[in-house]
Write a structure and sequence with these properties.
single chain, 95 residues, mainly alpha, 66% helix, flat
């Protein structure tokens, strides 16, 4: 049995090519699945989702939840009780 020796450049190019082809296949499959989901999805469900909440209220609620989580995390890190926080201003902490 003969043993073929491959050059390092060949191995690198072959590996990068394999990864590139794999990623292209994943992109194509994702596009096809998205296309078929959009084509065969019931339109009633899409309309219900659009009319479910007025514009801006969901984002405001989500922003408020994120702000409260941020304040709680900073208070916990600084060993401050949440009841002691009176004024909330977001600014860069000086070193």
């Amino acid at each position: 049995m003969t043993y073929m020796e491959y050059s390092s450049l060949f191995v690198v190019v072959f590996g990068i090519g394999t990864v590139f082809i794999g990623l292209v296949c994943i992109i194509i499959l994702t596009y096809l699945i998205s296309f078929f989901c959009r084509k065969f999805a019931p339109e009633e469900a899409v309309e219900v989702q659009k009319a479910a909440a007025p514009a801006g209220t969901a984002n405001a609620d989500e922003d408020q939840k994120q702000m409260l989580a941020l304040i709680a995390a900073v208070a916990m890190h600084e060993n401050v009780s949440l009841s002691d926080i009176k004024d909330i201003r977001i600014r860069k902490k000086s070193e």
